[in-house]
Amino acid sequence: MVKLLKRKIFISYLVLVIIGISTTGLFVSQLTQSLYRHEVEQRLITAASLIEHQISQNLKKGQIIDFNLEAVAYADILRYSSLLEKNLEKLEPRITFIDYNGKVIGESDADFQSMENHLGRKEIKEAVNGGIGLDIRFSETLKMDFIYVAKPVKAAETVIRVSLPLTQLKNINRTIWLYSGIGILAGLALTMLLAVKFTSSLTLPVNELNIVSREISRGNYSKRASVKSDDELGQLAGTFNEMANELEKTVADLKDKNIKFDSIMNSMTNGFVAVDRKQKILLINEIACRFLDIDYDEDIIGKNLIDVIRNHKINKLLLQTVESNKSSVHEISISQPDEKTFRIYANPIKYPESSDSNSGGILSIMDITNIKKLEQIRTDFVSNVTHELKTPLTSIRGFVETLRSGAIDDGEVSDKFLEIIDIEAERLYMLINDILQLSEIETKQKDSNIATHDFGSIINEVFSILQGAADKKSIELSCNIEGSINITANRDRIKQMLINLIDNAIKYNVENGSVRVKAWKAEGRIVLSVKDTGIGIAQQHLTRIFERFYRVDKGRSRNMGGTGLGLSIVKHIVNLYNGDIKVESEPGKGTEFVIQLPA
User: Fold this and answer.
1) What digits encode the pLDDT tens for the residues 413-440?
2) CB neighbours of 58 closer than 8 A, spacing ≥ 6?
3) What's the number of domains the chain is made of?
4) What are the residues whose beta carbons fall under 8 Å from the beta carbon of 180, sequence distance 6 or more?
5) For residue 104, which phi and psi values (nearest 5 degrees)?
């Protein structure tokens, strides 16, 4: 572009110089010719006046005049006269005498008798009418341009015409155009030097601005033009740099806002998808992509919704929202890749100035899978509690009804029924107690009655409580505590946790089995392991054993007196102290629970 500008400026300079010099040459040529003709006219008028005066004097003296001889004589006189020599070189004057009827009666350079009538000539007409006739024209006789001056000789009723060839004008024109050509060449040479210097001074700043503009268009917004001058180009460069500063600031602000916007959108727990009226994606965050199993990248923006989200329900929902211009709420379940339930809020993107039209639609996607699971757990809990309470109560009522019907009179039967009623009542008490404990732990943010206790003494106390149950199945209880371990907690809460774990290890153990409890410190935490040699738990049950009322073998657990809340209580106690619990088990080989608690 800069080279093209240089070429244009350079050519413009040359054209201007050529036009200027040519115009000047033409003007000088015309002016010189005009001055030259005027000078010749004046001298010819003077010569004609002198001849007219001389002839008039001769006529007064009575002399007979031979006009042809007079023409030749006066032509010779004028040829060597200083009157026509100055600045006119050595020209050949021509003298012609014409009577008032236009007949040539004397000619210095031709045979006057063969010449045509001259009455129609302009200069002759003017002279016959008493004035001085002037004309410039091409002479058919001598085949060249002549300037003619005619003056009447009233005494002889004759016109004297003096003429000169204008050959000098050609020489003048030739000289003028020669010097004009030399001037053009000299001007061109000078113009080339000036044009190169001027175009360089003009195009260098333009080139600088061009380079900086290209850099800015490529994203280098810190680039500035370094043009230092006081002219308009300097002002342009200053304005350009101010514009670049504002552009850099604006782009930086936009980038900052986009980063903040993207951070906010991608930090939200809800997914967002926005489309225009043509179902082109305007906005989608990473959460929505994760929910809908889409690979997130910037190329998604601008694509058609159907090409990106392969879910007919969601696509139809957005389309209906845009077309109806109404908000709605829906729940959609997706089975791929995992079973998920989403609550979707669909809203039209309405114009600020009008609520009757919209520019697209937006979806807010909330993952309610866990909420649904909690609702299901709550439903199952109520159902399980109802069932667990109803079963012993039904049994108690049945035996009481039987006793009232007369069985109470049979001592052996009544004792058996009363024992069963006592067992069911104990079971009810344990169930209600576990429910209350679980409810208490769930509502606590922080435990009470916190103190520092020897962890080994708590384990030994639990062993003494459960030793009788272990002895019934010939199960060996063993404890291995590495060093002295103190725990800061509610003693009864830790004791309840250990009782539930070890009691389960005894209940679901085999005859002559073992329960080994081990405790140690690692990385500032207390690690507790309860390992048994029992029946074990199948892999598919491990993720659910901490749920309320969940039993791997429902019939066996109930017969052993379990409420189905023991491990759930353990899990909540561990969570209350910001701990962690893991389980490893294999059917037929036993189970190991590993708990980590803050020291």
Assistant:
1) 777 778 777 777 777 777 777 677 766 7
2) 65
3) 5
4) 21, 22, 24, 25, 28
5) -75, 125
